[in-house]
Specification:
The two termini are 27 Å apart. The strands form 3 sheets. The protein has a 7-stranded mixed beta sheet with strand order 2-8-7-6-5-3-4, with helices on both faces. Strands 9-12-11 form a 3-stranded antiparallel beta sheet. Strands 1-10 form a two-stranded parallel sheet. Strand 3, helix 4 and strand 4 form a beta-alpha-beta unit. It is built from 10 helices and 12 strands. The protein is α/β, with parallel strands linked by helices. 34% of the residues lie in helices and 14% in strands. It has 2 domains: 114 residues, Aspartate Aminotransferase, domain 1 (Alpha-Beta Complex); 249 residues, 3-Layer(aba) Sandwich (Aspartate Aminotransferase, domain 2), CATH 3.40.640. This is Aminotransferase class V domain-containing protein. One of its GO terms (molecular function) is catalytic activity. InterPro entries: Aminotrans_V_dom, PyrdxlP-dep_Trfase, PyrdxlP-dep_Trfase_major, PyrdxlP-dep_Trfase_small. Pfam families: Aminotran_5.
């Protein structure tokens, strides 16, 4: 398969193979130009601030289109951990309440809830079955005191994809909210903000942006009454006058979760990269990623590797994960060959994006074969 996005659009890839996208994507040349444009706009004084606002509005509009929502449902914070912590604080959980998470979650999806155990909040963990968690598995841990279910759309660990829409259909019949972490899916597969209560995402992985932003999407249908426990001048309707009277009012939409300016260099870069992804077409990107992923899975299986990631396209996205207790050593040796992927947590992970192609797959398989033949790793 040929790539959908040319590698020539990226900065300094050269002849390297980049399957590191689940950790971070390579920098786009257009993003470098976008950051330079931000620096140029800084020299305009007040005019620069107007330009920043325009780019921020454009970036939020792009993200809203990806999520099937509206720009006023999008807030930009510093990182996804901050976003999840902000949500945890806004819920006002009390002793006796519980939160349901699964054991395939990244630490940022677990730690903000563990802190609440000190206040008597129970954190209930859902076990995986063959590296997958189903809606039924999650729902079996939900009861009348469950305030929120926290789950990734696609697991960072196994690459398995959750049918969150089925889960949400059941949760809507209760008072339990759903927070969907789309960090490992947004940008390469469809994500619908109307089929969850909160969406969380990072800026520097599949969205092809850079470090420095945490994306929060809010579906107001069941969350309009939730207010953050942290407040800043960006989150209130009037940043000056009411304060003199000792009062303030939160913004009526997602902006209430923004305490101050976002990282504008990151906003400029993300505005560029999300426009590129939208122009390429998320459905086309998804078809490409799944097709190339199938090609990689078939060759890994033929080579004798044990996969965590489901073979069925409907149950995965871009992460292809292989069971290995030598993942770190394998990734380090592949890096010396100019092949980037993630190794650790009892596996190694190749993350397929729109700029990857069949030649990349062949390079990876050949690289793994070379490691095995030298006896530097055990299948």
């Amino acid at each position: 398969m040929e790539s959908l996005i040319s590698k020539k659009m990226f900065e300094n890839i050269g002849d390297r193979v980049w399957f590191y996208n689940g950790a971070e994507s390579p920098p786009l040349k257009g993003s470098v130009d976008a950051v330079r444009r931000y620096m140029e706009h800084r020299s305009y004084g007040p005019g620069g601030r107007s330009s920043n606002a325009e780019v921020e509005d454009s970036c939020k509009s792009n993200l809203a289109k990806m999520l099937g929502g509206q720009p006023n449902q999008i807030a930009l914070l510093s990182n996804s951990s901050d976003v999840i912590s902000m949500i945890a604080g806004a819920l006002g959980l009390k002793a006796g309440d519980n939160v349901v998470v699964n054991k395939l979650e990244f630490p940022s999806g677990i730690l903000p809830w563990l802190v609440l155990q000190e206040a008597g909040v129970e954190v209930r963990f859902v076990d995986h079955v063959n590296w997958r968690v189903s809606p039924e598995d999650i729902l079996s841990r939900v009861d009348a005191r469950t305030r929120i279910v926290v789950s990734s759309h696609v697991s960072y660990l196994s690459g398995a994809k959750l049918d969150y829409k089925e889960l949400y259909r059941a949760l809507k019949q209760t008072d339990t909210l759903l927070m969907l972490d789309a960090t490992q899916s947004l940008g390469i597969t469809a994500v619908d903000i109307n089929e969850t209560d909160f969406v969380v995402c990072s800026s520097y992985k599949w969205l092809l942006g850079i470090h420095g932003l945490g994306i929060l999407g809010i579906n107001p249908a069941r969350t309009s009454d939730f207010m953050p426990r942290a407040v800043g001048w960006r989150g209130v309707t009037d940043m000056f006058s009411p304060l003199r009277d000792g009062s303030y009012r939160f913004q009526p939409d997602a902006r209430r979760f923004e305490t101050g300016y976002p990282s504008y260099p990151c906003v400029y870069a993300l505005d560029y990269s999300t426009r590129l992804l939208l122009d390429t077409g998320i459905p086309l990107i998804e078809d490409h990623v799944l097709g190339l992923g199938t090609e990689l899975i078939s060759k890994l299986e033929a080579a004798g590797y044990e996969l965590m990631t489901p073979r069925e396209p409907e149950f995965r996205a871009g992460n292809i994960c292989v069971v290995s207790d030598q993942g770190e050593e394998i990734s380090a040796e592949l890096e010396r060959q100019g092949i980037y992927l993630w190794g650790g947590d009892g596996r190694f992970r190749a993350s397929v994006h729109a700029f990857n192609d069949s030649a990349d797959v062949d390079r990876l398989i050949a690289g793994l074969s070379a490691i095995h033949s030298k006896g530097e790793a055990i299948l």
